[in-house]
Specification:
mainly beta; 8-stranded mixed β-sheet; 8% helix
Length: 407
């Protein structure tokens, strides 16, 4: 039997440096004193200040904003080390955490994994969480651009487009790719401290991703390009896929997938309650509903997307700023997977004429149906509130939405 504690320190140090996630490194260092002494904790990501992205004179940014502040968040799958007493509690919990910019690795803000929503902690949530007491896996990362003013304070308003980042040199040198208000791709390089909007747009871009160490972008028609951040040129790597209304890029088990969301625009008669000063005549307004999804796999050699009929037990999550995937066997063993979670206007069969609110929905590939997650207890418990095995009888005294972690 191999004694893992006596592995050479040089080898352990090499292994630790290959761990991209700070949570994986935390568990690595928790194995034993030898492993801990061979691996240094990851330094906190530097707080980057970026200039405002040019908006073509449309004045979309707050008047007080003078730049962007870049922060990183992690989407985590949390599970107990010991099996729960009840089989009904055998599931993982999804949560998004953001490190406090002034106290890295010590204080985190808890957010909804699919959106910007900050959650108030339950009464009996533990004051301090020792993350080494749980099985934690990082499922995805998102980067947020916060506006800041002349004195460095964060302005509440957030830049709404998705941003992806590739660090090149120990986090001190990086490239950021996002979508400009015009629908074009925009690149920021830390060494030039400048934005470049790439003048190429057959159709507005829907999503961006870092996959296999490269930047990819997909437009509204499914046309997919690789972005060369050095030459600022685009290379076509997949022909368009027409059909849906919004495209999402996601990495799953070393493959890149594209999820195509189909929307239905329908007229709804009635008085929406806005008053005659808004609608001069009998109100006829449009109701947008999410009706179905298709999933495609990227085949680089063929420069094409091929439709996938079976997700193989995978659960796909389309968040506001990060798309991620998880295995149903890891997250919810009682579920067969092959579903897509999303934020959108969910079809309501109980009242087909009602205006739809934006909510968390799930699309089941096997049945082809879309349901509200809060109406499905098995799925709803993956999100908020925290499961019973993570809470305690110790009253939380931190600010709502914030908790300490011993990382």
């Amino acid at each position: 039997m191999v004694d893992w504690a006596i592995l050479p320190k040089d080898l352990l140090n090499l292994i630790s440096k290959s761990l991209d996630s700070s949570f994986d490194l935390l568990h690595f260092r928790s194995v034993c004193s030898s492993w801990r002494s061979s691996a240094d904790p990851k330094p906190p990501l530097p707080t980057h200040h970026l200039p405002i992205l040019p908006d073509n004179g449309t004045s979309l940014f707050p008047d007080s904003a003078v730049g962007f502040r870049l922060s990183q968040r992690s989407i985590l799958l949390v599970k107990p080390h010991k099996p729960p007493i009840s089989e009904s509690d055998l599931f993982g919990w999804l949560v998004k955490v953001e490190e406090d910019l002034n106290a890295p690795r010590k204080v985190t803000t808890l957010l909804d994994p699919m959106s910007e929503t900050r959650r108030s902690l339950p009464e009996h949530f533990p004051r301090s969480l020792d993350v080494s007491s749980f099985k934690i896996r990082e499922l995805g990362r998102e980067f947020k651009l916060h506006y800041f003013n002349t004195v460095g304070d964060i302005v509440n308003s957030l830049y709404l487009e998705k941003a992806v980042v590739r660090y090149l040199d120990s986090c001190s040198k990086f490239v950021l790719l996002t979508i400009h208000v015009s629908g074009k791709l925009a690149v920021f390089t830390s060494w030039d401290r400048a934005w470049t909007v790439i003048n190429d747009m057959p159709s507005p871009y829907d999503d961006v991703i870092v996959f296999d160490g490269r930047f990819f972008g997909v437009d509204n028609n499914g046309r997919t390009v690789v972005v060369d951040f050095e030459s600022l040129k685009l290379e076509l790597v997949a022909s368009p896929v027409y059909g849906g209304d919004k495209k999402f890029l996601i990495e799953s088990c070393g493959e890149m997938l594209m999820v195509d969301m189909y929307l239905s625009m329908e007229e709804v008669d009635g008085d929406p309650g806005f008053g005659e000063e808004v609608f001069e005549h009998h109100a006829v307004f449009m109701n947008e509903r999410t009706v179905k999804f298709k999933v495609f796999k990227f085949l680089e050699r063929e420069k094409s997307w091929v439709e996938v009929k079976d997700l193989g037990g995978k659960m796909l999550f389309l968040g506001d700023d990060c798309n991620f995937t998880a295995s149903a066997s890891d997250l919810l063993p009682s579920c067969g997977g092959s579903c897509v979670f999303f934020n959108g206007n969910v079809f309501n069969e109980d009242n087909v004429d009602a205006m739809q609110d934006r909510d968390l929905g799930v699309f089941d590939f096997r049945s082809g149906k879309i349901e509200l997650v809060h109406k499905l207890p098995e799925y709803a418990k993956l999100f908020w509130p925290p499961p019973p095995w993570i809470t305690s009888h110790e009253r939380a005294e931190d600010h709502p939405g914030e908790t300490s972690s011993k990382c």
